[in-house]
Amino acid sequence: MALTLVEASKYSNDVLQQGVIETFVRDDPVAERMKFKTILGNALSYNRETGEADAEFKAVNDTWTPTNQVVTKYTATLKILGNAARIDDFIRSTRQNINDVRAEMIAGNAKAVKKAWGDGLIYGDGTADPKSFDGAHKLIANTTYNTILADATDTQTVVLSLSTHLDKALDMVKGFRPACIVTSKGLRRGVTKYLRSVGSINTGRDEFGHQIMTYGSNDVPWYASDYILDTELTASGAYSAKTGGLTTSIFILSFEEKAFEGLHARPMEVTPWETVPGTNVEESKIRWYVSLMMESLVSCVKIVGIDADGTVAA
């Protein structure tokens, strides 16, 4: 059974772990909503449909030529994400409330893990960095089914067109309900400014009670991410690097079964404080064996090459 991080933490009696997870998902629209499957072993292989079968009308006595869908095998491998907090026994012995010091250190480390996770979620590349998993840019990259190249000639000046780019992208999601639109904060500000100017901004409240902007006939929640950059570089229109350019990307994500999902060996954990042999310090680790997967090509869509500083058009 796939659970969100918050739901999974409810099955733990570890108050510290629950607090770390609350810190981890706070103000992160993807971490709050993404569901994680617990797997045995260090990897999960799955088939992704990469080609459709053909069908046609036949006349009597016509020849029937069989065709089948094309599937490609993918493997999501768990990666080790985490860090260690250390405190010298001298500090522990000379502070009135050691628990406060420990809590501050764990909170700081939780933020560091959150930052590494958020960057990997968008820009992770297991080929370039074998220690990392593949993120959204790698998993959503098929120009036939789930990727719109807004700037095919790499001018870095293509402004976001709500009808040409975003409405088309929403229509490309098939068989799934988009859970959210996620962009950089700068791009969302530009969209908000434009929608206010034409008097068509929609708002609502999400499942957590947060007031949000929504878009489209299905009122898809629109969120901003700290981890989507406005400095992306494209090559022949496709995403190339997270820095070096002036463009940004838009992601339309679904968190249903076979859509954008997380994998882990067990929920994120915080180890007890223990003395490090041969030192005068105690150590506690935040560790998580985690990866990402996306089985259906049409469950999520991205738009690449939008001018991060450009105006928004209808």
Q: What do you see in this structure?
A:
The chain is an alpha+beta fold and 314 residues long. It has 2 domains: 148 residues, Major capsid protein gp5 fold, CATH 3.30.2400.20; 127 residues, capsid protein of prophage fold (2-Layer Sandwich), CATH 3.30.1930. 26% of the residues lie in helices and 32% in strands. The strands form 4 sheets. Strands 1, 2, 5, 14, 15, 16 and 17 form a 7-stranded mixed β-sheet that branches. Strands 6-18-13-7-10-9-8 form a 7-stranded mixed β-sheet, covered by helices on one side. It has a two-stranded antiparallel sheet with strand order 3-4. Helix 2 packs across helix 5. The longest helix is centred in the middle third of the chain and has 26 residues. It is globular and about 85 Å long. It starts with a strand and ends in a 7-residue tail after the last strand. The model has no long low-confidence stretch (mean pLDDT 90).
Task: Provide a brief overview of the structure.
By secondary structure, the chain is of the alpha+beta class.
User: Biggest sheet, open or closed, and with what strands and sense?
Assistant: 7 strands, mixed
Distance between the termini: 42 Å
Number of helices: 8
Structural class: alpha+beta
